[in-house]
Design goal:
112 residues; mainly alpha; 63% helix
């Protein structure tokens, strides 16, 4: 099934938005934790530029990763699951077709 042609029910849209927002917050919290760790471990004034580089890199990564278009959302969810910011359980309520697409992307397709 093509991800671009999937239909999303209203309840699936609510589930997807909630999972997306939760994953985003979880990732932002992990970045915040890393920033605090880096600041606490500063030894030299030039370390501030390492923090700047880290945040710039993370900003680009986040901007590329978090895309809420329904045509790519299942791929986004698969990536977030792979990176540990989301679980399949948090997507309970999505259609079986959508869950199977995510599992296929993750390499967890049907076992015979």
């Amino acid at each position: 099934m093509n991800m671009h042609n999937l239909k999303w029910s209203q309840s699936e849209r609510v589930i997807a938005r909630k999972a997306y927002n939760k994953a985003y917050k979880k990732e932002m919290d992990s970045i915040r934790t890393e920033v605090i760790r880096q600041v606490q471990n500063y030894k030299e004034p030039k370390n501030i530029w390492q923090l700047h580089s880290y945040l710039t890199e993370k900003r680009k990564e986040i901007d590329q990763k978090y895309n809420y278009r329904y045509s790519v959302l299942l791929g986004v969810f698969a990536r977030l699951i792979k990176e540990g910011f989301l679980s399949l359980d948090e997507l309970t309520g999505l259609s079986e077709d959508k869950i199977m697409i995510i599992k296929t992307i993750l390499g967890l397709g049907k076992e015979d």
